[in-house]
Each structure stands twice: as C-alpha cells, then as structure tokens.
Amino acid sequence: MPFQSIAHRGASALAPENTLASFEKAIELGFDYIELDVRLSKDKQLVVIHDADVQRTTDGEGQIEYFTVKDLKKLDAGSWFSPAFAGEKIPLLNEVLTRYSGKIGIIIEMKSPENHPGMTEILADTLKWFKSSSQIKVQSFHVNELKKFHQLAPKIPAGLLLSKPLDLFHLASYRDFASFLSVHHLLLSKSFINQAELFGYEIYSWTISKQYQFADMQRLGVQGIISDDEKRLPDSIMYVLITPFLKGQDFLKTLLA
Ligand code: G3P
Ligand code: CA
Known about the structure:
By secondary structure, this protein is of the alpha/beta class. It contains 9 helices and 9 strands. Strand 7, helix 7 and strand 8 form a beta-alpha-beta unit. The structure holds SN-glycerol-3-phosphate and calcium ion. Calcium ion binds next to strand 2. The site of calcium ion has 3 residues, from strand 2. InterPro entries: GP_PDE_dom, PLC-like_Pdiesterase_TIM-brl. It comes from Sporosarcina globispora. This is GP-PDE domain-containing protein.
C-alpha cells in the first residue's frame, strides 16, 4: 500500500526547519504533508517553532512565551542554517494555513499544550472552519490536551505521538479521540501495527532519515512516514534518497485510484 510522505518540520534537511522556505521545498519535492510545531506567543498567537526558546533556530535569545509576535518577527530564523536563508522569519500558524491549505496536507503538533493555557482552545478555534477533507491534522504527546482538542474540533483528525509502548487497554481507550498514532519507528513491530489496526488507527512513523528505514516502514505497512535527514546532505544525495520513494508512491496511488 502507498504511504503518505510527511516532511518533518518541512523539508528540514534542505532549508531551515519550520519556515516557509522548508514548506516550499517540501512542496517542490512532492511530499503529501508537512509536519510543523506550534507554540503560543506572549500575545497568545500560535507561532510555528519547535523549541521552547529561540536560541537554536534564530539570532535571538529567550522563551517564546515572553515574546510578542511583533518581536518574534524581528528575528532571523534562517541564517543559523545557511546564509542563503538569511532573513527567513518565524511563521504564524495562520500564515501557513492561508498559504498552504489545499496545496499540501498539514500536520500540526501542539508543543507542551499542558504548560500553555489556552493553546488547545485557540488551535481548535483557528481550525474550526476547516473540514476533515482539507487534509489538516493535529497531533500531540499530551493525552488530555489531545482529548480536549478532539472535543472542541471533532472534524479535525487527532493523533497521539508515542515514544513509549502502548498496551491494549490504552489502545482501546484512546480510540475515542485519536484516529491516528504517530509512533517512534523503533517501537514499531508488525504485531503492534496489527493490534492498532484492529482498533482502526492509522499509523505514522517518525523520524525516518535513511533509505533502509523507508523500506522497513513500507514493509511494516505504515500509512504515513515522517521523514527528514540525520545530517545535512548535498541536495543531489537527498534527492536520490527521497525521490524514488515519492515517485513510487505516486505510481501506486495512480494504480489504486
Ligand atoms: O512528528 C513526530 C515528531 O515531530 C516528534 O518529535 O521533537 O520533532 O517534534 P519532534
Ligand atoms: Ca514535531
């Protein structure tokens, strides 16, 4: 079966993660989805960034929650990756939705929603206009906040991120609000996938960066592969790794249409 190809933080091996440049690159490469992370700014807007602070991926310092959007927008979110991306900005979730919904699927990860009161409600409110068919999904490691999100926005597919194994009892009880599981690839086995599929979950694996791992995941029969690369490779090598899989997926999808 074909899998959905999901670009982890955008095409983050080729452009600075979680920026418009990395999302554009993911579209250019032919990914089905982008995955991105959201956090809340001081003025309660959803901003697209992975870490709790801005040090690693911008030229600034400090926690996201102490920055207004106006101040976050002054930061350079591209130069740390390469001078070619100087001036790239931290995007707002609203900017990404406006620009890309309908063009590529979007998987939004709520980062630490339990520590940011209001995040789940603001996200549900932002997405309430989208239909389940618009290929927007939400995922989180946090069970209770994901449950709350599902209650507030039942049309948007919600997925639980897993970095630990899940027993049958939990698989059964989480199905009330989660329709997919994003699972660390080292936790995946055929028996786990069979059990999860009995409950009707889709399974996505993260984070796949090597060619043999794509093949392993395809053999296991996951429905989605969240991928990037463990180190920066020259463009040409990255294309060699990813392109055959994306082309193969397109071919399979045409056959099955
Ligand atoms: O989608 C899975 C993955 O994004 C979870 O890890 O740290 O990259 O957000 P992280
Ligand atoms: Ca993520």
